[in-house]
Design goal:
Elements: E1 2-4, E2 18-27, E3 33-40, E4 51-57, E5 63-69, E6 79-84, H1 92-97, E7 104-111, E8 123-128, H2 133-145, E9 151-157, H3 166-171, E10 175-178, H4 193-196, E11 205-210, H5 212-224, E12 232-236
Length: about 240
C-alpha cells in the first residue's frame, strides 16, 4: 500500500498493460530472496519508485499475482525485480524456488505515480529491510544522471547479510543500522531521531518504505523532528501482495 501523508500528487507517471517477460537472469545474493532480470516485450519506460505486477497461472486456470518494486534504473535495458521469499507466498515461493533463465512470466507495469522520484529534487530515503528496492532504482538513476548529491539514504535491517544491495548502498554512503547485531562501535538497535538529524534538509521529499511497523516508527521519528507531513511519502508492504 502506498500512503500519502499530505503532499500534492506527482504529475502523470507512465503505466503499461500486461506483457510477456523472458527471464534473462536469476541471482540469489541474500538468503530467502531472488533477484530477477527480465526482458520485457515492448516495455514502457518506468520512473524510479514504480512497481510491476507478476501474475502466475496454474494449469487449472487458477491465478495469483503480486506487486514488486523495480530495482533497475529506467535506462537499464532489462527490468530488475527483487523478491523476498515468504513461506506462505503463492507467487514469491515460485519465483524464488522454481523460475529459471528462459522462463516466460506475465507482468504488468510500470504502476504507481505517487512514490516516484523525479531525478531532480533532493530526497531523503528511509528503508526497512527489503524496502530498499525502490531506493536502489532511485540511486541508480541518480548515478546515471551524476546527481547522487541529491539523495540521502538510511536503512534499518536485522543483519547486514540480510540487506539487499548492501554493497551498492554502502558505497553510496547510506547509513545502515542493524537491529540484531552490532556494526563497528554501534550496538544493535533501531534507527533513531539522532540518526536522521544530519540527513534531513529543508526542501527534501522524504520517502519511507518498509513493513507496517517500520513505516509507523520512521514516520513518527520524522514528525517528532519537525519534518512537515506534507513532504513525507510512505509505502508499506507485507504478505498481502503490496509492493516489495
Amino acid at each position: 500500500m502506498t500512503e500519502a501523508l499530505g503532499a500534492d500528487v506527482v504529475g502523470a507517471a507512465p503505466s503499461g498493460g500486461w506483457r510477456s517477460a523472458v527471464v534473462a537472469g536469476v541471482r540469489r545474493p541474500v538468503p530467502r530472496s531472488v533477484q530477477l532480470r527480465l526482458d520485457v516485450e515492448d516495455r514502457v519506460d518506468h520512473l524510479p519508485g514504480q512497481h510491476y505486477v507478476v501474475r502466475l497461472t496454474a494449469p487449472d486456470g487458477y491465478t495469483a499475482q503480486r506487486s514488486y518494486s523495480i530495482a533497475s534504473a529506467p535506462g537499464d535495458p532489462l527490468l530488475e525485480l527483487f523478491v523476498e521469499r515468504l513461506d506462505d507466498g503463492e507467487v514469491s515461493t515460485h519465483l524464488a524456488d522454481v523460475v529459471e533463465p528462459g522462463d516466460v512470466l506475465e507482468v504488468r507495469g510500470p504502476i504507481g505515480g505517487w512514490f516516484v522520484w523525479d531525478g531532480e529534487s533532493p530526497a531523503l530515503l528511509l528503508a526497512g529491510g527489503s524496502g530498499v528496492v525502490p531506493f536502489v532504482s532511485m540511486l541508480r538513476t541518480a548515478r546515471a544522471l551524476r546527481r547522487t548529491d541529491l539523495l540521502r539514504i538510511a536503512v534499518s535491517v536485522r543483519t547486514l547479510e540480510q540487506l539487499p544491495y548492501a554493497d551498492e548502498l554502502l558505497q553510496a554512503g547510506a547509513l545502515v543500522v542493524t537491529t540484531r547485531e552490532a556494526r563497528g562501535i554501534r550496538p544493535a538497535g533501531r534507527l533513531t531521531g539522532a540518526d536522521l538529524v544530519p540527513l534531513w534538509e529543508p526542501g527534501q521529499t522524504v520517502y519511507v518504505c518498509g513493513s507496517g511497523g517500520f513505516a509507523e516508527s520512521a514516520t513518527g521519528l520524522l514528525v517528532e523532528l519537525g519534518v512537515p507531513p506534507s513532504v513525507i511519502r510512505v509505502e508499506r508492504f507485507g504478505p498481502s501482495g503490496a509492493p516489495v
